[in-house]
C-alpha cells in the first residue's frame, strides 16, 4: 500500500515542503529503506521508527520503502522521524487527511525536537493544513501567524490526531525573558557613550566606540538591543528563520539579536558558509539586530572588506556548486576599537607607547569604506572613580521610550535616518543658524564632505529625539561632537 | 636720483665732514663725475637724520646719513631678526617664519642681507608682502654676499629698502660690519637673535641693542649645538626667550596695537590652556550632557579649543 504525508525543510531561509512517501509490502525480508538524499541521521530513522511504532501499539508493513521528495534537496537531522512513521503506519493501515509534521522519535514512542518546526508551521499555514509538532516546538510555532498547530506528546497521540483530528492547541505563552540583554542602569558615568548609544538606536546608525581597554565598550555595545524597539511579528519570524537555518532557536525572538564574533572568527563563521548545506554566519544571525565587532582593527582586512556588500545590500549570498543561497543580513554595526595599538593614546592615566609609524598603520587599517558607513563615533574614556561609585544610570526602559518616539517620527517621514541619502539630506529642514554652523565647520576644514552627510543624518536623529521637526543649531552642534574626524 | 641734503654736492660735503676713512676718501677724492655717475646710475637715494625713523634718531651717535635703494624706508616700527650665517634648517625656518609674522603685522623686518638667518628673515618678510630693510656693510652699489644679489634686488624693487652708511664703491671689510650692526640695532625697537654661535656679529648686534635700550629676544636651541650657544647664553644673561610667535608680537606690544583683540568668548575661561577635563568645564559652565557636548563642539569648530588626549585645551 502507498501513503504520504508532508514534512518541511529550509533552503536558506525559505521553507520548502518535503513529501514523505511510504510504500509498504506485506512480504519480504523485513527491510526498511529510506531514499531521497537523506543524511545519516535521517537514514537511522528506520530503527527509531520501528521501535516507536511498536511502543505506540501500531503495525508496520513487513517491508517499507520511504522516499523523501524532492530528491535533489538534502534532508538532514532526526525530525523526519515523525512524518516517516506516520506515512509508514498509513501504508499498513490507511486513514486520515493530509498534514504536515516534524519531530524526533524516541524508542519509547515519545516525540521531541524543534528543528524544522518553523519551516513545517510555515508550510502548513501556506497550504492550510494542520501541523503536528512536539510540545517543545510550541514557542517557535507561535511565531507563525494563522498556523493550525496540533501539539502531540507521543507517536500514539500523533497517530490518533492524524486519523481523527484533535490534538492540543498551543496556549498563549508569555514571552520568555530569560535572555534579556544587559541594562543601561548597569553602566555608570560614560554620559557621552550613553548618549551616542541612544542616538544610534534612535536613528539606526552604525556606531563606533574609540577608547582604551577596560572602559566598558563591550558592555555598552551589549546594551543596545535593550534600547532598540522590539521586533514586530514579521521581524521576529524573519530573525528566527535565519537562526533556524543554522539549526538554532532564538530564546527571545522579540528582542533584536546581539552577536559579537571574536576577531579570530573565520570567514565562514562571520559571513556564512561551511561544508555541506550553507549555514548563516554571524552577520546573518545579527539580522534585524546588532553585530558587535570588538577590536575592529584586529579583524583581518579582507574580512572587513567582505562586510561591505552585506552592509550595502542587507544580505549575503553564498555560492555553492549548482546553487546559491542568500541569507539576509540587515544588522546594525557597533564597532569598537582601541585608539592605537597599545590602547592608551589619549588615556589620561597611562602614556601611549606606540611609535608614529605604528599609529599611521593603525589609522590606515581603520579607515576605508567600512568606517565610512559609521555615522556616530564617540570616544570612551576611563570613568572617574566618583562616577563608578555614583548612582546607577538611567534604565534601558526609559531610554527605549525616547527611541520609540524618535522612530515613530522617522516612520511618519518614510525613511529611517541612517538611510538618508544625499538628496534627502539636501532637502532636510535645517534652520539658519544650524546651517551656518555646518558651513563654518566645512570651511574651517573640520568636516569632510562625507563627514558633512554623517553629521546631518545624526543631527536629524538628535532633532527627532528632541521632538523637533526642524534641525536647529544645538542639534548640529551635538552631532558635530560625534563626528570623530580623527578616524576614517 | 639723489634726494635730501641738497643734491650730490651736499652729499659729498657731508661725507667729507664725517671723518672719512682712507678708502672712502679715495672714492670722494676721485673724479666728482664718477661719484655722481654711480649715484645716478644705481638709482640710489640719500637720507640725512631729518629723514630717519625716530628710533634711529634717538640712539647715541646716529649715522649722519644713509644711502637708500628702494622705496620702503620710512618712519615705522621695525624689529631686527639676525643670526648666524651658518644656520641650521631649524634656524632658517624660524627666521623665515618670524620675518613673515612681523611683516604681516605691519612691522619692518631689519637685517643685514648676510647668508643664513639674515637672508631667511628678509625672504620671510617678502613672502608676506611686507616691508624689510637690509643694512649693508659696504657700498650700496655692491651685493655682499654675491649669492644674495637676487634677494637684494627683490628687496629694493618689491616692498623694502637697501640701506648703507657707505657710499657707492666702498668694499666690504670686517671692521665695517659692527658699524652696520649699530644701524640695525638703532633702527629696531627689538632685536631677535635666532641662532648665534658663541662669537659672532649677531651677538654684537644684541649687545649694541641692549646698550641702546632695545628689547633682545633669543630663540632657545639645543644645548649641545654650537649654533645655539650664543642664543642660550643671551637667555642666561637676561634676554627674553622666544617660545612662540605670539611671544614676539606680544613682547613688543604689537599684537594689541595692530589686531583688534578677538571678541571675548563667554565662558571660555573654563577651559585651561593646559587642558581641562570635559567634566570640569561642564561644572564650571553649569552645563552637562548634550548641552556641554554641543558647546564644546561649537568651540572646536570655531578653532578656539582642541581635544588632546581626553582633555580639551584652549588654543
Task: Describe, in short, the structure shown.
Chain A is of the alpha/beta class and about 500 residues long. Chain A contains 22 helices and 18 strands.
Structural write-up:
The complex is a heterodimer of chains A (488) and B (315). Chain A is of the alpha/beta class and 488 residues long. Chain A has three domains: 2-164, Ribosomal Protein S5, domain 2 (2-Layer Sandwich), CATH 3.30.230; 184-393, Rossmann fold (3-Layer(aba) Sandwich); 420-488, Helicase, Ruva Protein, domain 3 (Orthogonal Bundle). Chain A is 39% helix and 17% strand. Chain A contains 22 helices and 18 strands. In chain A, strands 11-14-17-10-18 form a five-stranded parallel β-sheet. In chain A, strands 1-2-4-3 form a four-stranded mixed β-sheet. In chain A, helix 5 (138-141) links the parallel strand 8 (130-134) and strand 9 (148-152). The longest helix of chain A is centred in the last third of the chain and has 18 residues, at 396-413. Chain B has helices at 7-17, 22-29, 32-42, 54-58, 89-104, 117-127, 149-157, 177-187, 201-211, 226-236, 245-251, 255-258, 278-285, 289-301; strands at 45-48, 65-69, 78-82, 108-111, 132-136, 161-164, 190-193, 215-218, 240-241, 305-308, 311-314. Chain B is elongated, with a radius of gyration of 23 Å. Chain B contains 14 helices and eleven strands. Chain B folds into two domains: 7-256, 3-Layer(aba) Sandwich (Rossmann fold); 268-314, no CATH class. In chain B, helix 5 packs parallel to helix 6 and helix 8 (177-187) packs across helix 9 (201-211). By secondary structure, chain B is α/β, with parallel strands linked by helices. The longest helix of chain B is centred in the N-terminal third of the chain and has 16 residues, at 89-104. Chain B has a nine-stranded mixed β-sheet, sandwiched between helices. Chain B has a two-stranded antiparallel ribbon with strand order 10-11. In chain B, strand 10 and strand 11 form a beta hairpin. The A-B interface holds A 191-192, 195, 345-348, 379, 381, 384, 437, 440-441, 444, 446-447, 462, 474, 477-478, 480-482 and B 277-279, 288-291, 293-298, 300-303, 308-311.
Amino acid at each position: 500500500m502507498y501513503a504520504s504525508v508532508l514534512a518541511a525543510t529550509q533552503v536558506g531561509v525559505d521553507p520548502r515542503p518535503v513529501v514523505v512517501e511510504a510504500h509498504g509490502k506485506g512480504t519480504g525480508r523485513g527491510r526498511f529503506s529510506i531514499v531521497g538524499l537523506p543524511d545519516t541521521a535521517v537514514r537511522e530513522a528506520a530503527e527509531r521508527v520501528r521501535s516507536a511504532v511498536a511502543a505506540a501499539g501500531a503495525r508496520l508493513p513487513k517491508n517499507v520503502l520511504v522516499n523523501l521528495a524532492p530528491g535533489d534537496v538534502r534532508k538532514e537531522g532526526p525530525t523526519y522521524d515523525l512524518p516517516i512513521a506516520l506515512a509508514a503506519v498509513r501504508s499498513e493501515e490507511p486513514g486520515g487527511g493530509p498534514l504536515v509534521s516534524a519531530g524526533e522519535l524516541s524508542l519509547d514512542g515519545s516525540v521531541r525536537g524543534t528543528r524544522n518546526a518553523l519551516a513545517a508551521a510555515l508550510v502548513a499555514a501556506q497550504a492550510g493544513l494542520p501541523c503536528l509538532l512536539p510540545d517543545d516546538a510550541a514557542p517557535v510555532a507561535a511565531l507563525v501567524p494563522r498556523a493550525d498547530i496540533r501539539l502531540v506528546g507521543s507517536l500514539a497521540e500523533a497517530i490518533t490526531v492524524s486519523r481523527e483530528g484533535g490534538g492540543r492547541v498551543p496556549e498563549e505563552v508569555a514571552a520568555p525573558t530569560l535572555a534579556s540583554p544587559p541594562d543601561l542602569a548597569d553602566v555608570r558615568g560614560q554620559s557621552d557613550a550613553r548618549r551616542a548609544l541612544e542616538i544610534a538606536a534612535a536613528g539606526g546608525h552604525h556606531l563606533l566606540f574609540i577608547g582604551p581597554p577596560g572602559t566598558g565598550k563591550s558592555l555598552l555595545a551589549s546594551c543596545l538591543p535593550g534600547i532598540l524597539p522590539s521586533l514586530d511579528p514579521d521581524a521576529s519570524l524573519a530573525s528566527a528563520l535565519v537562526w533556524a537555518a543554522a539549526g538554532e532557536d532564538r530564546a527571545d525572538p522579540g528582542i533584536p539579536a546581539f552577536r559579537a564574533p571574536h576577531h579570530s572568527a573565520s570567514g565562514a563563521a562571520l559571513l556564512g558558509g561551511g561544508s555541506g548545506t550553507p549555514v548563516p554566519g554571524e552577520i546573518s544571525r545579527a539580522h534585524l539586530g546588532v553585530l558587535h565587532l570588538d577590536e575592529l582593527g584586529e579583524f583581518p582586512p579582507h574580512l572587513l572588506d567582505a562586510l561591505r556588500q552585506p552592509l550595502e545590500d542587507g544580505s549575503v549570498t553564498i555560492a555553492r556548486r549548482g546553487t546559491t543561497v542568500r541569507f539576509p543580513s540587515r544588522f546594525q554595526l557597533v564597532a569598537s576599537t582601541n585608539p592605537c595599538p597599545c590602547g592608551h593614546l589619549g588615556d589620561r592615566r597611562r602614556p601611549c607607547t606606540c611609535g608614529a609609524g605604528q599609529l599611521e598603520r593603525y589609522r590606515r587599517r581603520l579607515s576605508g569604506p567600512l568606517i565610512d558607513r559609521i555615522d556616530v563615533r564617540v570616544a570612551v574614556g576611563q570613568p572617574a572613580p566618583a562616577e563608578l561609585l555614583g548612582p546607577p544610570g538611567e534604565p534601558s526602559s526609559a531610554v527605549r521610550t525616547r527611541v520609540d518616539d524618535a522612530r515613530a517620527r522617522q516612520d511618519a517621514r518614510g525613511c529611517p535616518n541612517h538611510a538618508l541619502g544625499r538628496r534627502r539630506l539636501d532637502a532636510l529642514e535645517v534652520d539658519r543658524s544650524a546651517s551656518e554652523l555646518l558651513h563654518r565647520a566645512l570651511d574651517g576644514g573640520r568636516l569632510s564632505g562625507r563627514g558633512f552627510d554623517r553629521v546631518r543624518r545624526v543631527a536629524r536623529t538628535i532633532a527627532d529625539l528632541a521632538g523637533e521637526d526642524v534641525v536647529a543649531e544645538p542639534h548640529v552642534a551635538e552631532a558635530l561632537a560625534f563626528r570623530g574626524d580623527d578616524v576614517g | 636720483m639723489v634726494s635730501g641734503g641738497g643734491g650730490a654736492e651736499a652729499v659729498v660735503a657731508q661725507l667729507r665732514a664725517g671723518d672719512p676713512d682712507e678708502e672712502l676718501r679715495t672714492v670722494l677724492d676721485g673724479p666728482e663725475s664718477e661719484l655722481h655717475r654711480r649715484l645716478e646710475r644705481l638709482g640710489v637715494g640719500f637720507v640725512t637724520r631729518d629723514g630717519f625713523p625716530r628710533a634711529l634718531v634717538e640712539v647715541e651717535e646716529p649715522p649722519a646719513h644713509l644711502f637708500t635703494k628702494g622705496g620702503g624706508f620710512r618712519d615705522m616700527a621695525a624689529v631686527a631678526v639676525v643670526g648666524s650665517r651658518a644656520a641650521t634648517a631649524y634656524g632658517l625656518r624660524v627666521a623665515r617664519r618670524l620675518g613673515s609674522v612681523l611683516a604681516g603685522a605691519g612691522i619692518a623686518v631689519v637685517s643685514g642681507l648676510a647668508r643664513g638667518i639674515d637672508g631667511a628673515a628678509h625672504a620671510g618678510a617678502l613672502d608676506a608682502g611686507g616691508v624689510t630693510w637690509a643694512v649693508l656693510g659696504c657700498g650700496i652699489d655692491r651685493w655682499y654676499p654675491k649669492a644674495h644679489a637676487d634677494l637684494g634686488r627683490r628687496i629694493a624693487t618689491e616692498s623694502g629698502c637697501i640701506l648703507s652708511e657707505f657710499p657707492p664703491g666702498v668694499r666690504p671689510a670686517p671692521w665695517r660690519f659692527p658699524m652696520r650692526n649699530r644701524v640695525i640695532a638703532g633702527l629696531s625697537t627689538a632685536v631677535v637673535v635666532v641662532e648665534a654661535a658663541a662669537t659672532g656679529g649677531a651677538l654684537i648686534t644684541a649687545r649694541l641693542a641692549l646698550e641702546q635700550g632695545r628689547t633682545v629676544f633669543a630663540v632657545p636651541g639645543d644645548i649641545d649645538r654650537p649654533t645655539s650657544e650664543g642664543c642660550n647664553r643671551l637667555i642666561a644673561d637676561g634676554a627674553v626667550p622666544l617660545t612662540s610667535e605670539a611671544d614676539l608680537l606680544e613682547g613688543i606690544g604689537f599684537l594689541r596695537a595692530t589686531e583688534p583683540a578677538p571678541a571675548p568668548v563667554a565662558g571660555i575661561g573654563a577651559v585651561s590652556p593646559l587642558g581641562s577635563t570635559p567634566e570640569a568645564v561642564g561644572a564650571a559652565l553649569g552645563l552637562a550632557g548634550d548641552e556641554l557636548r554641543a558647546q564644546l563642539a561649537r568651540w572646536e569648530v570655531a578653532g578656539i579649543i582642541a581635544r588632546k588626549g581626553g582633555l580639551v585645551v584652549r588654543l
